[in-house]
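Long-time lurker, first post. I've been practising inverse folding by hand and with some scripts of my own, and I keep getting stuck on stretches where the structure tokens seem ambiguous. Below is the full token string for one chain I'm working on. Before anyone asks, I'm not after the true native sequence, just a reasonable design that respects the backbone. If someone could post their per-position residues I'd love to compare against what I wrote down in my notebook.
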């Protein structure tokens, strides 16, 4: 892949206490599971091989996305065009914009040709990313992501009782459908965060929450410009000693908050259809790669159930 995509870096130390926790075995013999499918984890994002219009490339699996999307930069680079559909409003971290959708886009994924409808037009910096695969793609199966070994597989719902064995407090966000997980930010403060495989950071939370936790006065911060799907903005970054996620405690976690004066769309209130009353979203932030990189994550997008266990890098000949 092109140099615009840089290889991931390993961050943090995993502190695991899993005694008494029922684990979901990572074996190819699990009934109802597909064979393992190789993916690439680049810059903290899960990339799956796809083919559009005869052009091979990669698409990003994004559990934090409510829609499937196609990259306008890829379309221009590959000289491809498809029939346009309706406009929709797309909310990113920094802003909301009106975007085209596309009809009947033939995509080869998992070796099968599928016609995608209502693909939202987004723009990524590189044409190497063809699509963003979100809600309607993920809700058909239980997905298992093995981060350390850069692979995934699909599991049918009738072959596993994920509700029974889930070991993370989780639920489906009623405002958008993305999976929410309960994370202990400190010994006395928990928060519901969107588990987002499209986020290459650790934790994103509101500045007010960071202030209440006294994090901004305790830890040294650095500012950096961050790009979202619609626009970019300034964020303040720092690291905290640890957080707790499900049955594990993770050390040295990266945290991002909006820089002073930065008004993030993600934390604004919205107006549900059929009412004039603005309400806040259920999610208080994002949980991304800097935390998830240590685990085999099993997730049912349809129900919001999540199971994690510490992953282990397999020998090269496995």
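-- Answer (accepted) --
I ran through it position by position. Result:
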């Amino acid at each position: 892949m092109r140099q615009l995509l840089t290889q991931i870096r390993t961050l943090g130390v995993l502190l695991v206490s899993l005694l008494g926790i029922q684990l979901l075995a990572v074996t190819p013999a699990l009934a109802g599971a597909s064979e393992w499918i190789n993916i690439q984890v680049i810059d903290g994002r899960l990339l799956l091989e796809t083919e559009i219009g005869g052009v091979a490339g990669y698409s990003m699996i994004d559990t934090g996305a409510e829609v499937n999307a196609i990259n306008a930069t890829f379309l221009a680079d590959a000289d491809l065009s498809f029939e346009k559909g309706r406009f929709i409003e797309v909310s990113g971290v920094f802003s909301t914009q009106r975007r085209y959708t596309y009809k009947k886009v033939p995509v080869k994924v998992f070796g099968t040709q599928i016609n995608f409808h209502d693909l939202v037009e987004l723009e990524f910096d590189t044409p190497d990313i063809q699509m963003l695969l979100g809600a309607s793609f993920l809700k058909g199966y239980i997905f298992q992501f093995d981060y350390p070994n850069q692979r995934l597989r699909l599991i049918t719902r009738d072959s596993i009782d994920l509700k029974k064995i889930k070991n993370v407090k989780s639920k489906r966000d009623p405002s958008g459908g993305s999976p929410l997980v309960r994370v202990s930010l400190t010994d006395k403060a928990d928060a519901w965060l969107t588990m987002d495989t499209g986020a290459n950071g650790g934790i994103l939370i509101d500045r007010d929450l960071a202030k209440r936790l006294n994090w901004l006065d305790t830890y040294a911060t650095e500012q950096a410009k961050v790009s979202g799907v619609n626009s970019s903005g300034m964020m303040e970054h720092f690291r905290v000693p640890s957080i707790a996620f499900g049955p594990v405690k993770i050390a040295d976690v990266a945290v991002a908050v909006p820089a002073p004066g930065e008004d993030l769309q993600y934390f604004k209130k919205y107006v549900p259809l059929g009412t004039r009353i603005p309400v806040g979203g259920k999610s208080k932030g994002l949980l991304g790669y800097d935390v998830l990189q240590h685990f085999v994550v099993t997730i049912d997008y349809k129900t919001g159930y999540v199971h994690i266990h510490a992953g282990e890098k397999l020998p090269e000949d496995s």
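A couple of notes from the structure itself: The chain is about 10% helix and 40% strand. Residues 37 and 60 are 14 Å apart (CA to CA). Happy to go over any region you disagree with.
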